[in-house]
Amino acid sequence: MTESTYRIQGATGEWEVVIGLEVHAQVTSNAKLFSGASTEFGAEPNTQVSLVDAAMPGMLPVPNKECVRQAVRTGLAINAQINKYSRFDRKNYFYADLPQGYQISQLYHPIVGEGEVQISLDEKDPDAHGKAIGIERIHIEQDAGKLMHDQHPTMSYVDLNRCGVALMEIVSRPDMTSPKEAGAYVKKLRSILRYVGSCDGNMEQGSMRADVNVSVRKPGEELGIRTETKNVNSVRFVQQVIEYEAQRQVDVLESGGEIVQETRLFDPDKGETRSMRSKEDAHDYRYFPDPDLLPLELEDDFIFDCKASLPELPDEKRARYKNVLGLSAYNAAVLTAEHETALWFEKLLDTSNEPEKIASSAANWMTSELFGALNKMGLTITESPVTPEQAAELLGLVADGTISGKIAKQVFEIMLETGDGAAKIVEEKGLKQESDTGAIEKVIAEVMQANADKVEEYRGGKDKLFGFFVGQTMKAMQGKANPQVVNELLKKTLDN
Protein backbone atom coordinates (compact mmCIF):
# COMPACT_ATOMS: atom_id res chain seq x y z
CA MET A 1 0.00 0.00 0.00
CA THR A 2 1.42 3.40 -0.96
CA GLU A 3 1.37 6.45 1.26
CA SER A 4 -1.13 8.10 -1.12
CA THR A 5 -3.69 5.39 -0.17
CA TYR A 6 -2.94 5.54 3.57
CA ARG A 7 -5.39 3.46 5.58
CA ILE A 8 -5.89 2.54 9.23
CA GLN A 9 -6.41 -1.21 9.62
CA GLY A 10 -9.19 -1.75 12.17
CA ALA A 11 -10.98 -4.83 13.45
CA THR A 12 -13.96 -4.00 11.21
CA GLY A 13 -11.89 -3.25 8.09
CA GLU A 14 -10.08 -0.30 6.59
CA TRP A 15 -10.58 3.32 7.64
CA GLU A 16 -9.71 6.43 5.66
CA VAL A 17 -8.21 9.54 7.26
CA VAL A 18 -9.38 13.03 6.27
CA ILE A 19 -7.12 15.95 7.20
CA GLY A 20 -7.44 19.71 7.04
CA LEU A 21 -4.91 22.20 8.40
CA GLU A 22 -5.28 25.73 9.71
CA VAL A 23 -1.81 27.24 9.60
CA HIS A 24 -1.12 30.40 11.61
CA ALA A 25 1.77 32.31 10.07
CA GLN A 26 3.21 35.40 11.75
CA VAL A 27 3.36 38.21 9.23
CA THR A 28 6.79 39.69 8.55
CA SER A 29 6.28 43.38 9.24
CA ASN A 30 7.74 46.39 10.99
CA ALA A 31 5.12 46.36 13.76
CA LYS A 32 1.99 44.66 15.09
CA LEU A 33 -1.30 44.50 13.20
CA PHE A 34 -2.97 47.49 14.89
CA SER A 35 -0.14 49.16 16.81
CA GLY A 36 3.45 50.33 16.38
CA ALA A 37 4.90 47.92 18.95
CA SER A 38 7.87 45.74 17.95
CA THR A 39 7.43 42.07 17.04
CA GLU A 40 11.06 41.01 17.55
CA PHE A 41 11.42 37.51 19.00
CA GLY A 42 13.09 36.89 22.34
CA ALA A 43 12.49 40.22 24.09
CA GLU A 44 11.99 40.39 27.86
CA PRO A 45 8.34 39.78 28.87
CA ASN A 46 5.97 42.74 28.46
CA THR A 47 8.57 45.03 26.89
CA GLN A 48 6.84 45.17 23.48
CA VAL A 49 3.32 46.18 24.49
CA SER A 50 1.66 49.39 23.33
CA LEU A 51 -1.43 50.94 24.96
CA VAL A 52 -3.51 49.47 22.11
CA ASP A 53 -2.15 45.95 22.79
CA ALA A 54 -2.91 46.33 26.50
CA ALA A 55 -6.48 47.47 25.65
CA MET A 56 -6.27 50.68 27.61
CA PRO A 57 -9.53 52.68 27.52
CA GLY A 58 -9.91 54.98 24.53
CA MET A 59 -7.15 53.33 22.47
CA LEU A 60 -8.19 52.75 18.85
CA PRO A 61 -6.61 50.23 16.43
CA VAL A 62 -5.02 51.45 13.18
CA PRO A 63 -4.38 48.78 10.48
CA ASN A 64 -0.75 48.23 9.51
CA LYS A 65 -0.59 48.57 5.71
CA GLU A 66 2.45 46.28 5.48
CA CYS A 67 0.54 43.42 7.11
CA VAL A 68 -2.26 43.84 4.57
CA ARG A 69 0.28 43.93 1.73
CA GLN A 70 1.98 40.73 2.89
CA ALA A 71 -1.34 38.88 3.14
CA VAL A 72 -2.24 39.93 -0.41
CA ARG A 73 1.19 38.89 -1.71
CA THR A 74 0.78 35.48 -0.03
CA GLY A 75 -2.63 35.05 -1.64
CA LEU A 76 -1.24 35.91 -5.06
CA ALA A 77 1.60 33.40 -4.57
CA ILE A 78 -0.91 30.54 -4.23
CA ASN A 79 -3.07 31.79 -7.13
CA ALA A 80 -5.88 32.70 -4.75
CA GLN A 81 -8.77 35.10 -5.17
CA ILE A 82 -7.92 38.51 -3.70
CA ASN A 83 -11.01 40.11 -2.20
CA LYS A 84 -11.02 43.85 -2.86
CA TYR A 85 -13.50 44.22 0.01
CA SER A 86 -12.76 42.63 3.38
CA ARG A 87 -13.82 43.39 6.93
CA PHE A 88 -12.62 42.92 10.48
CA ASP A 89 -14.80 41.14 13.05
CA ARG A 90 -14.59 40.77 16.78
CA LYS A 91 -14.29 37.21 18.09
CA ASN A 92 -15.43 37.45 21.69
CA TYR A 93 -14.06 35.22 24.43
CA PHE A 94 -12.41 35.66 27.80
CA TYR A 95 -8.89 34.49 28.50
CA ALA A 96 -6.20 35.95 30.76
CA ASP A 97 -3.80 36.60 27.88
CA LEU A 98 -6.41 38.55 25.86
CA PRO A 99 -6.74 42.01 27.47
CA GLN A 100 -9.48 43.24 25.11
CA GLY A 101 -11.79 40.32 25.85
CA TYR A 102 -12.01 39.76 22.10
CA GLN A 103 -9.73 39.01 19.17
CA ILE A 104 -9.91 41.11 15.99
CA SER A 105 -10.16 38.64 13.10
CA GLN A 106 -12.00 38.18 9.78
CA LEU A 107 -14.85 35.67 9.63
CA TYR A 108 -17.41 36.78 7.09
CA HIS A 109 -15.25 38.69 4.60
CA PRO A 110 -11.60 37.47 4.55
CA ILE A 111 -8.96 39.30 2.56
CA VAL A 112 -8.02 36.21 0.49
CA GLY A 113 -10.39 33.63 -0.98
CA GLU A 114 -9.85 30.27 -2.67
CA GLY A 115 -6.45 29.13 -3.94
CA GLU A 116 -4.28 26.02 -3.95
CA VAL A 117 -0.87 24.65 -3.03
CA GLN A 118 0.75 22.01 -5.23
CA ILE A 119 2.54 19.30 -3.24
CA SER A 120 4.66 16.30 -4.21
CA LEU A 121 5.22 12.99 -2.45
CA ASP A 122 8.34 12.13 -4.46
CA GLU A 123 11.45 14.26 -3.87
CA LYS A 124 13.33 12.59 -6.71
CA ASP A 125 10.65 13.42 -9.27
CA PRO A 126 8.23 16.06 -7.93
CA ASP A 127 6.22 16.09 -11.17
CA ALA A 128 5.42 12.38 -10.95
CA HIS A 129 3.30 12.31 -7.79
CA GLY A 130 1.83 15.79 -7.49
CA LYS A 131 -1.43 16.77 -5.83
CA ALA A 132 -3.25 20.08 -5.45
CA ILE A 133 -4.37 20.94 -1.91
CA GLY A 134 -7.20 23.47 -1.92
CA ILE A 135 -6.99 26.63 0.16
CA GLU A 136 -10.35 27.83 1.42
CA ARG A 137 -9.27 31.27 2.64
CA ILE A 138 -6.58 33.39 4.25
CA HIS A 139 -7.61 35.93 6.85
CA ILE A 140 -5.56 38.25 9.01
CA GLU A 141 -6.00 38.48 12.76
CA GLN A 142 -4.28 39.41 16.01
CA ASP A 143 -2.36 36.90 18.05
CA ALA A 144 -3.05 36.56 21.77
CA GLY A 145 -0.49 36.87 24.56
CA LYS A 146 1.12 33.98 26.41
CA LEU A 147 0.54 32.49 29.85
CA MET A 148 3.70 31.40 31.68
CA HIS A 149 2.99 28.67 34.23
CA ASP A 150 6.57 27.83 35.25
CA GLN A 151 7.70 31.16 36.72
CA HIS A 152 6.03 30.89 40.13
CA PRO A 153 4.89 27.99 42.34
CA THR A 154 1.29 29.19 42.79
CA MET A 155 0.66 31.83 40.11
CA SER A 156 0.70 32.10 36.32
CA TYR A 157 2.31 35.13 34.71
CA VAL A 158 1.06 36.89 31.57
CA ASP A 159 3.42 38.03 28.80
CA LEU A 160 1.70 40.32 26.30
CA ASN A 161 4.62 40.67 23.85
CA ARG A 162 2.82 38.52 21.26
CA CYS A 163 -0.53 40.20 21.89
CA GLY A 164 -1.55 42.03 18.71
CA VAL A 165 1.08 40.40 16.48
CA ALA A 166 -0.30 39.99 12.95
CA LEU A 167 -1.14 36.45 11.87
CA MET A 168 -2.30 35.04 8.57
CA GLU A 169 -4.59 32.07 9.16
CA ILE A 170 -4.29 29.88 6.08
CA VAL A 171 -7.19 27.42 6.03
CA SER A 172 -6.90 24.35 3.79
CA ARG A 173 -9.71 22.22 2.50
CA PRO A 174 -9.90 18.67 3.91
CA ASP A 175 -7.97 17.39 0.88
CA MET A 176 -5.18 15.50 2.65
CA THR A 177 -5.51 11.79 3.35
CA SER A 178 -2.18 10.78 4.92
CA PRO A 179 0.44 12.07 7.36
CA LYS A 180 2.91 12.28 4.49
CA GLU A 181 0.61 14.52 2.45
CA ALA A 182 0.09 16.81 5.45
CA GLY A 183 3.84 16.98 6.04
CA ALA A 184 4.49 17.78 2.37
CA TYR A 185 1.81 20.50 2.49
CA VAL A 186 3.31 22.22 5.54
CA LYS A 187 6.80 22.07 4.01
CA LYS A 188 5.61 23.50 0.68
CA LEU A 189 3.53 26.22 2.32
CA ARG A 190 6.48 27.21 4.54
CA SER A 191 8.73 27.31 1.46
CA ILE A 192 6.31 29.62 -0.38
CA LEU A 193 5.98 31.95 2.63
CA ARG A 194 9.77 32.20 2.89
CA TYR A 195 10.18 32.90 -0.82
CA VAL A 196 7.51 35.60 -0.65
CA GLY A 197 9.02 36.98 2.57
CA SER A 198 5.64 37.23 4.29
CA CYS A 199 6.63 34.89 7.17
CA ASP A 200 9.98 33.50 8.32
CA GLY A 201 8.41 30.04 8.77
CA ASN A 202 10.27 29.43 12.02
CA MET A 203 8.06 26.81 13.67
CA GLU A 204 10.38 26.38 16.68
CA GLN A 205 9.87 30.04 17.64
CA GLY A 206 6.12 29.85 17.08
CA SER A 207 5.99 32.14 14.07
CA MET A 208 4.33 29.33 12.13
CA ARG A 209 2.14 26.69 13.73
CA ALA A 210 -0.70 24.44 12.68
CA ASP A 211 -4.08 23.43 14.04
CA VAL A 212 -4.58 19.86 12.81
CA ASN A 213 -8.13 18.74 11.98
CA VAL A 214 -8.52 14.95 11.76
CA SER A 215 -11.50 12.70 11.13
CA VAL A 216 -11.88 9.09 10.00
CA ARG A 217 -14.47 7.28 7.90
CA LYS A 218 -14.96 4.07 6.02
CA PRO A 219 -13.74 4.67 2.43
CA GLY A 220 -16.40 6.44 0.38
CA GLU A 221 -18.69 7.26 3.31
CA GLU A 222 -19.71 10.66 4.68
CA LEU A 223 -17.15 12.75 6.55
CA GLY A 224 -16.75 11.80 10.21
CA ILE A 225 -16.73 14.06 13.27
CA ARG A 226 -13.39 15.87 13.45
CA THR A 227 -11.14 16.91 16.28
CA GLU A 228 -8.77 19.88 16.19
CA THR A 229 -5.32 19.61 17.78
CA LYS A 230 -4.02 23.12 18.47
CA ASN A 231 -0.67 24.85 17.99
CA VAL A 232 1.46 22.03 16.56
CA ASN A 233 4.88 23.50 15.87
CA SER A 234 6.84 21.09 13.64
CA VAL A 235 6.26 19.02 10.52
CA ARG A 236 7.15 15.86 12.41
CA PHE A 237 4.66 16.64 15.18
CA VAL A 238 1.91 17.34 12.61
CA GLN A 239 2.45 13.84 11.22
CA GLN A 240 2.55 12.29 14.71
CA VAL A 241 -0.72 14.01 15.65
CA ILE A 242 -2.43 12.57 12.57
CA GLU A 243 -1.14 9.04 13.16
CA TYR A 244 -2.10 9.04 16.84
CA GLU A 245 -5.44 10.81 16.48
CA ALA A 246 -6.60 8.71 13.52
CA GLN A 247 -5.81 5.48 15.38
CA ARG A 248 -7.51 6.79 18.55
CA GLN A 249 -10.67 7.67 16.65
CA VAL A 250 -10.80 4.28 14.94
CA ASP A 251 -10.41 2.55 18.33
CA VAL A 252 -13.22 4.66 19.83
CA LEU A 253 -15.61 4.00 16.93
CA GLU A 254 -14.87 0.27 16.76
CA SER A 255 -15.50 -0.09 20.48
CA GLY A 256 -18.98 1.41 20.03
CA GLY A 257 -18.14 4.94 21.15
CA GLU A 258 -18.66 8.29 19.45
CA ILE A 259 -16.16 10.96 18.45
CA VAL A 260 -16.73 14.25 20.24
CA GLN A 261 -16.03 17.43 18.28
CA GLU A 262 -13.40 18.98 20.51
CA THR A 263 -10.15 20.85 20.76
CA ARG A 264 -7.14 18.77 21.77
CA LEU A 265 -3.51 19.37 22.73
CA PHE A 266 -0.45 17.39 21.61
CA ASP A 267 2.09 16.10 24.14
CA PRO A 268 5.33 15.70 22.13
CA ASP A 269 7.04 13.77 24.97
CA LYS A 270 4.38 11.06 24.94
CA GLY A 271 3.42 11.39 21.28
CA GLU A 272 -0.24 11.65 22.32
CA THR A 273 -3.13 14.08 22.07
CA ARG A 274 -5.42 14.87 25.00
CA SER A 275 -8.74 16.63 25.33
CA MET A 276 -8.62 20.35 26.02
CA ARG A 277 -12.21 21.61 25.62
CA SER A 278 -15.33 20.98 23.57
CA LYS A 279 -15.12 22.61 20.14
CA GLU A 280 -17.00 25.87 19.88
CA ASP A 281 -19.00 26.88 16.81
CA ALA A 282 -18.72 30.35 15.29
CA HIS A 283 -21.92 31.55 17.01
CA ASP A 284 -20.37 30.79 20.42
CA TYR A 285 -17.91 33.63 19.83
CA ARG A 286 -20.65 36.20 19.08
CA TYR A 287 -18.84 37.51 16.02
CA PHE A 288 -19.83 40.98 14.85
CA PRO A 289 -18.15 43.70 12.70
CA ASP A 290 -15.53 45.63 14.65
CA PRO A 291 -17.01 49.12 15.13
CA ASP A 292 -13.55 50.71 15.49
CA LEU A 293 -12.33 49.62 12.04
CA LEU A 294 -13.57 50.53 8.57
CA PRO A 295 -13.70 47.77 5.94
CA LEU A 296 -10.56 47.28 3.82
CA GLU A 297 -11.12 48.32 0.22
CA LEU A 298 -8.17 47.46 -2.03
CA GLU A 299 -7.44 49.32 -5.24
CA ASP A 300 -6.31 47.62 -8.45
CA ASP A 301 -2.99 49.46 -8.41
CA PHE A 302 -2.23 48.16 -4.89
CA ILE A 303 -2.91 44.56 -5.95
CA PHE A 304 -0.86 45.06 -9.13
CA ASP A 305 2.10 46.37 -7.12
CA CYS A 306 1.83 43.37 -4.76
CA LYS A 307 1.89 41.02 -7.76
CA ALA A 308 4.88 42.81 -9.30
CA SER A 309 6.83 42.50 -6.04
CA LEU A 310 6.67 38.69 -5.97
CA PRO A 311 9.92 36.80 -6.61
CA GLU A 312 10.29 33.72 -8.79
CA LEU A 313 8.43 31.10 -6.73
CA PRO A 314 9.60 27.51 -5.98
CA ASP A 315 7.68 25.72 -8.76
CA GLU A 316 8.68 28.30 -11.39
CA LYS A 317 12.30 28.17 -10.28
CA ARG A 318 12.34 24.37 -10.27
CA ALA A 319 10.97 24.30 -13.85
CA ARG A 320 13.64 26.80 -14.97
CA TYR A 321 16.42 24.80 -13.34
CA LYS A 322 15.27 21.68 -15.19
CA ASN A 323 14.38 23.15 -18.57
CA VAL A 324 16.93 25.96 -18.93
CA LEU A 325 19.87 24.90 -16.76
CA GLY A 326 19.46 21.19 -17.52
CA LEU A 327 19.44 19.98 -13.90
CA SER A 328 18.00 16.61 -12.94
CA ALA A 329 14.50 16.62 -11.43
CA TYR A 330 16.00 15.66 -8.07
CA ASN A 331 18.66 18.37 -7.99
CA ALA A 332 16.17 21.00 -9.16
CA ALA A 333 13.77 20.01 -6.38
CA VAL A 334 16.44 19.97 -3.66
CA LEU A 335 17.94 23.31 -4.66
CA THR A 336 14.58 25.10 -4.79
CA ALA A 337 12.99 23.61 -1.65
CA GLU A 338 14.38 26.40 0.54
CA HIS A 339 14.79 29.99 -0.62
CA GLU A 340 18.21 30.33 1.03
CA THR A 341 19.53 27.28 -0.84
CA ALA A 342 18.36 28.65 -4.20
CA LEU A 343 19.96 32.04 -3.44
CA TRP A 344 23.27 30.34 -2.55
CA PHE A 345 23.21 28.31 -5.78
CA GLU A 346 22.43 31.35 -7.90
CA LYS A 347 25.23 33.38 -6.30
CA LEU A 348 27.56 30.53 -7.28
CA LEU A 349 26.25 30.66 -10.88
CA ASP A 350 26.58 34.46 -10.98
CA THR A 351 30.37 34.08 -10.92
CA SER A 352 30.27 32.60 -14.44
CA ASN A 353 29.57 34.27 -17.77
CA GLU A 354 28.02 31.00 -18.93
CA PRO A 355 26.00 29.68 -15.95
CA GLU A 356 24.37 26.95 -18.06
CA LYS A 357 27.79 25.32 -18.54
CA ILE A 358 28.62 25.02 -14.84
CA ALA A 359 25.07 24.50 -13.48
CA SER A 360 25.04 20.68 -13.47
CA SER A 361 28.48 20.27 -11.89
CA ALA A 362 27.69 22.99 -9.33
CA ALA A 363 24.36 21.35 -8.45
CA ASN A 364 25.96 17.91 -8.06
CA TRP A 365 28.70 19.34 -5.86
CA MET A 366 26.21 21.21 -3.66
CA THR A 367 23.83 18.28 -3.14
CA SER A 368 26.65 15.86 -2.33
CA GLU A 369 29.81 17.52 -1.01
CA LEU A 370 28.44 20.75 0.48
CA PHE A 371 25.25 19.37 2.01
CA GLY A 372 27.10 16.34 3.35
CA ALA A 373 29.67 18.54 5.09
CA LEU A 374 27.06 20.94 6.49
CA ASN A 375 24.98 18.05 7.85
CA LYS A 376 28.03 16.67 9.67
CA MET A 377 28.75 20.09 11.13
CA GLY A 378 25.11 20.73 12.06
CA LEU A 379 25.04 23.95 10.02
CA THR A 380 22.50 25.46 7.62
CA ILE A 381 23.37 26.78 4.18
CA THR A 382 23.39 30.36 5.51
CA GLU A 383 25.98 29.33 8.13
CA SER A 384 28.32 27.67 5.62
CA PRO A 385 32.01 28.48 6.28
CA VAL A 386 32.51 28.36 2.50
CA THR A 387 30.94 31.16 0.46
CA PRO A 388 29.36 30.74 -3.00
CA GLU A 389 32.28 32.71 -4.46
CA GLN A 390 34.82 30.36 -2.83
CA ALA A 391 32.87 27.34 -4.09
CA ALA A 392 32.94 28.76 -7.61
CA GLU A 393 36.71 29.18 -7.37
CA LEU A 394 37.10 25.54 -6.26
CA LEU A 395 34.90 24.21 -9.07
CA GLY A 396 36.75 26.42 -11.54
CA LEU A 397 40.09 24.85 -10.57
CA VAL A 398 38.61 21.40 -11.29
CA ALA A 399 37.07 22.53 -14.59
CA ASP A 400 40.32 23.99 -15.96
CA GLY A 401 42.38 20.97 -14.90
CA THR A 402 44.38 22.72 -12.19
CA ILE A 403 43.31 20.08 -9.65
CA SER A 404 41.56 16.72 -9.89
CA GLY A 405 38.19 15.90 -8.37
CA LYS A 406 39.95 13.82 -5.73
CA ILE A 407 42.25 16.68 -4.74
CA ALA A 408 39.23 19.02 -4.75
CA LYS A 409 37.75 17.00 -1.86
CA GLN A 410 40.92 17.55 0.19
CA VAL A 411 40.97 21.25 -0.66
CA PHE A 412 37.30 21.59 0.34
CA GLU A 413 37.99 20.04 3.75
CA ILE A 414 40.77 22.58 4.34
CA MET A 415 38.47 25.40 3.18
CA LEU A 416 35.88 24.35 5.75
CA GLU A 417 38.47 24.35 8.53
CA THR A 418 40.35 27.53 7.65
CA GLY A 419 38.02 29.67 5.54
CA ASP A 420 40.85 30.13 3.01
CA GLY A 421 40.22 30.26 -0.73
CA ALA A 422 40.83 27.22 -2.93
CA ALA A 423 43.58 28.79 -5.08
CA LYS A 424 45.55 29.84 -2.01
CA ILE A 425 45.33 26.34 -0.50
CA VAL A 426 46.35 24.65 -3.76
CA GLU A 427 49.37 26.96 -4.07
CA GLU A 428 50.49 26.66 -0.43
CA LYS A 429 50.03 22.88 -0.24
CA GLY A 430 51.51 22.18 -3.67
CA LEU A 431 48.37 20.39 -4.83
CA LYS A 432 48.37 21.64 -8.40
CA GLN A 433 47.59 18.90 -10.88
CA GLU A 434 50.50 17.82 -13.08
CA SER A 435 49.68 18.13 -16.76
CA ASP A 436 53.30 18.17 -18.01
CA THR A 437 53.33 15.30 -20.51
CA GLY A 438 57.08 14.87 -20.18
CA ALA A 439 56.90 14.35 -16.41
CA ILE A 440 53.96 11.96 -16.74
CA GLU A 441 55.62 9.98 -19.54
CA LYS A 442 58.71 9.53 -17.35
CA VAL A 443 56.60 8.06 -14.51
CA ILE A 444 54.67 5.82 -16.94
CA ALA A 445 57.96 4.43 -18.23
CA GLU A 446 59.05 3.65 -14.66
CA VAL A 447 55.72 1.94 -13.88
CA MET A 448 55.89 -0.17 -17.04
CA GLN A 449 59.51 -1.17 -16.32
CA ALA A 450 58.57 -2.23 -12.77
CA ASN A 451 55.61 -4.27 -14.05
CA ALA A 452 56.98 -5.76 -17.28
CA ASP A 453 55.04 -9.00 -16.75
CA LYS A 454 51.73 -7.14 -16.56
CA VAL A 455 52.61 -5.10 -19.66
CA GLU A 456 52.97 -8.40 -21.54
CA GLU A 457 49.65 -9.67 -20.16
CA TYR A 458 47.94 -6.44 -21.19
CA ARG A 459 49.36 -6.58 -24.68
CA GLY A 460 48.32 -10.24 -24.79
CA GLY A 461 44.67 -9.24 -24.43
CA LYS A 462 44.11 -8.55 -20.71
CA ASP A 463 42.51 -5.11 -21.27
CA LYS A 464 41.26 -4.88 -17.67
CA LEU A 465 44.85 -4.32 -16.52
CA PHE A 466 44.62 -0.80 -17.93
CA GLY A 467 43.04 0.38 -14.64
CA PHE A 468 46.01 -1.10 -12.76
CA PHE A 469 48.47 1.03 -14.75
CA VAL A 470 46.35 4.16 -14.22
CA GLY A 471 46.30 3.50 -10.46
CA GLN A 472 50.04 2.87 -10.27
CA THR A 473 50.80 6.05 -12.23
CA MET A 474 48.50 8.20 -10.11
CA LYS A 475 49.95 6.66 -6.93
CA ALA A 476 53.51 7.40 -8.06
CA MET A 477 52.49 11.01 -8.74
CA GLN A 478 50.66 11.27 -5.39
CA GLY A 479 47.31 11.82 -7.10
CA LYS A 480 48.46 15.09 -8.67
CA ALA A 481 48.61 13.92 -12.28
CA ASN A 482 45.85 14.99 -14.65
CA PRO A 483 43.80 11.78 -15.03
CA GLN A 484 42.81 12.63 -18.60
CA VAL A 485 46.42 13.14 -19.66
CA VAL A 486 47.47 9.95 -17.80
CA ASN A 487 44.81 7.93 -19.62
CA GLU A 488 45.76 9.31 -23.02
CA LEU A 489 49.50 8.74 -22.56
CA LEU A 490 49.08 5.26 -21.09
CA LYS A 491 46.82 4.19 -23.94
CA LYS A 492 49.30 5.48 -26.44
CA THR A 493 52.32 3.85 -24.74
CA LEU A 494 50.75 0.47 -23.92
CA ASP A 495 49.19 0.02 -27.35
CA ASN A 496 52.53 0.57 -29.14
TrEMBL record:
It comes from Parasphingorhabdus marina DSM 22363. It is an enzyme of class 6 (ligase). Allows the formation of correctly charged Asn-tRNA(Asn) or Gln-tRNA(Gln) through the transamidation of misacylated Asp-tRNA(Asn) or Glu-tRNA(Gln) in organisms which lack either or both of asparaginyl-tRNA or glutaminyl-tRNA synthetases. The reaction takes place in the presence of glutamine and ATP through an activated phospho-Asp-tRNA(Asn) or phospho-Glu-tRNA(Gln). Residues 343-494 form the Asn/Gln amidotransferase domain. Heterotrimer of A, B and C subunits. Gene3D superfamilies: 1.10.10.410, GatB domain, N-terminal subdomain. PANTHER family: GLUTAMYL-TRNA GLN AMIDOTRANSFERASE SUBUNIT B MITOCHONDRIAL AND PROKARYOTIC PET112-RELATED, GLUTAMYL-TRNA(GLN) AMIDOTRANSFERASE SUBUNIT B, MITOCHONDRIAL. This is Aspartyl/glutamyl-tRNA(Asn/Gln) amidotransferase subunit B.
